[in-house]
Amino acid sequence: MNTWLFLGAAALLSVERIAYALIWRRADEFRAAWAEPVDALRGLFYAFKAIQIGVFLSWCYVYGNGRLWPSDADALTVAIGATFIVVGQILNASVFYRLGRHGVFYGDRFGYSIPWCTEFPFSLCSHPQYAGAVMSIWGLFLVLRFPHDDWYVLPLLETMYYFAGAHFER
After folding, report:
1. What is the C-alpha separation between 141 and 77, in angstroms, rounded?
2. 3-state SS, residue 119
3. Cα–Cα distance between 125 and 106 in angstroms, integer?
4. Which residues contact 168 (CB under 8 A, 6 or more apart)?
5. What distance in Å separates the CA atoms of residue 156 and residue 94, rounded to the nearest whole number?
6. Of 33, 41, 126, 127, which one has the greatest count of Cβ atoms within 10 A?
7. How far apart are CA 138 and CA 82, in angstroms?
């Protein structure tokens, strides 16, 4: 594995988690800087997802020798990975459904009244959006990189980043 590629990927992927932790902890400053902080954070969310997807696809392309889809993918691994992706995205979509835009994008930190939710998916875990993202990432790499030696590197890194993010956003 190329150390520089890993460090570059790690740095790019860390920006999202660091930004969210800082915004969570300094919500008043973020709110003061933006006329509509929820929309500003939503814009950052889309930018971060574009970076994340770009890093993932670049990783798969480089380590797949110019291919995204592995030539040695087996049907069972693809099915398991696809299941992880679908379940992860159901968790993510359910969070957006339950909380709405203001709830997902830290509206409570910016002065909006967001009712506490204990219904699905929050009945499963305290951070279903993060759990869904992590499941989707593991699923993607199962589909695109398993069984190659690098298949778990970025999913493991992202799992640590999301765990740290959940911790620092308390």
Report:
1. 10
2. coil
3. 18
4. 21, 24, 25
5. 24
6. 41
7. 10
- Compute the distance between CA of residue 114 and CA of residue 100 in angstroms, rounded to an integer: 9
> What type of residue sits at position 3?
T
How many whole angstroms separate alpha carbon 137 and alpha carbon 148? 16
The number of beta carbons lying within 10 Å of the beta carbon of residue 56 is: 21
Instruction: Tell whether the torsion through CA atoms of 70, 138, 50 and 122 is positive or negative.
Output: positive
Tokens of 67: 């291919």
Residue type present at position 148 = H
Q: How far apart are CA 41 and CA 113, in angstroms?
A: 17
pLDDT in tens, 3-50: 999 999 999 999 999 999 999 999 999 999 999 999 999 999 999 999
pLDDT in tens, 128-169: 999 999 999 999 999 999 999 999 999 999 999 999 988 887
Backbone angles phi, psi at 121, to 5 degrees: -90, 0
- 10 Å Cβ neighbour count for 67? 11
pTM of the model: 0.94
